[in-house]
């Protein structure tokens, strides 16, 4: 049975991490925030990626991807 992934709007992701939407977009541009998912024109963030990113101390996207691969995510 497939697992349904929770997807968050950028506004929700920013709110959960305690930063502004503008700052979140800046982190995305600098590749210091989890990768986004595009659904049509909508931009979303995987809740599991955001959770892991936050628990690891907000590493760069490259470091997050390595951590995900090491954990088999």
Ordered list of secondary-structure elements with their pairings:
Elements: E1 7-9, H1 10-17, H2 21-29, E2 36-39, E3 42-46, H3 47-55, H4 61-71
Antiparallel strand pairs: 1-3, 2-3
Helix pairs in contact: 1-2
Task: Walk me through the structure.
- The chain has one domain (7-71).
- It contains 4 helices and 3 strands.
- The mean pLDDT is 92.
- A 3-stranded antiparallel beta sheet has the order 1-3-2.
- The chain starts with 6 loop residues before the first strand and ends with a helix.
- With 73 residues, the chain is an alpha+beta fold.
- A hairpin with a 2-residue loop joins strand 2 and strand 3 (42-46).
- It has helices spanning 10-17, 21-29, 47-55, 61-71; strands spanning 7-9, 36-39, 42-46.
Q: Which features does this protein show?
A:
single chain; 73 residues; alpha+beta; three-stranded antiparallel sheet; 4 helices; 51% helix; 16% strand; globular
């Amino acid at each position: 049975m497939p697992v349904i992934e929770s997807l968050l709007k950028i506004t929700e992701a920013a709110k959960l991490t305690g930063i502004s939407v503008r700052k979140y977009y800046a982190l995305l541009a600098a590749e210091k925030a989890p990768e986004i998912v595009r659904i049509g024109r909508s931009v979303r963030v995987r809740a599991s990626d955001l959770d892991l990113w936050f628990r690891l101390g907000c590493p760069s996207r490259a470091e997050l991807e390595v951590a995900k691969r090491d954990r088999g995510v």
